[in-house]
Amino acid sequence: MHELSLMESVVRQLRASAAENDIKKITRVLLVVGKMTMAVPDALQFAFEVLQKEDELLKDAVLEIRDEPIRGECRDCHHVFDIENHEFLCPSCSGPNVKIVGGRELYIDFYEGD
Ligand SMILES: [Zn+2]
After folding, report:
1. CA of 89 to the centre of ligand 1 (A)
2. CA 74 to mean position of chain CA atoms
3. In this model, does residue 84 exceed pLDDT 90?
4. 3-class SS of residue 8
5. Strand 26-34 vs strand 70-74: parallel, antiparallel, or unpaired?
6. How far apart, in whole angstroms, are the C-alpha atoms of residue 93 and residue 20?
7. What's the rounded Cα separation, in Å, for the pair 66 and 32?
8. Is the pTM here over 0.70, yes or no?
9. Which one of 25, 32, 60, 71 has the largest count of C-beta atoms within 10 Å of its C-beta?
10. Ligand 1 center from residue 95 Cα (angstroms)
11. What does the pLDDT look like over 85-100, one tens digit per residue?
């Protein structure tokens, strides 16, 4: 499962950062997930629940997920826009020369703990 391996790497980052900052318990995590990652938020939640069980650091943590839209930039007129429904045409000049500039990200925006 794609999402489980993604969450395993998120949890690894959380562990490393918590150890560095002497945090014993994480209470809240905000994860930013671009739509280009094709990761399903429900599946990420489920993967997190699996990983946080029996884990002192993470067992009380609440995972919040923020979706980031796919962003395109027109190579002709440099207009930047959100791509919806796989509509890869520039809404400004109707040109087809659009490159993807956002939506691939998956990162921890912040977490809270003590
Ligand atoms: Zn354009």
Report:
1. 8
2. 24
3. no
4. helix
5. unpaired
6. 49
7. 5
8. yes
9. 71
10. 5
11. 888 899 999 999 999 9
Q: How far is the CA of 67 from the centre of ligand 1 (A)?
A: 25
Ligand 1 centroid to 52 CA: how many Å? 45
End-to-end C-alpha distance for the chain, whole angstroms = 31
Q: How confident is the model at residue 64 (pLDDT cuts 50, 70, 90)?
A: very high
* Beta carbons within 10 angstroms of residue 32's beta carbon: 15
Compute the distance from residue 77 Cα to the ligand 1 centre, in Å: 4
CA–chain centroid gap for 39, Å, is 8
pLDDT at 85: 84
Distance 71 CA to ligand 1 centre (A): 13
In 69-105, at which residue ranges do the beta strands (DSSP E only) sit? 70-74, 80-83, 98-102
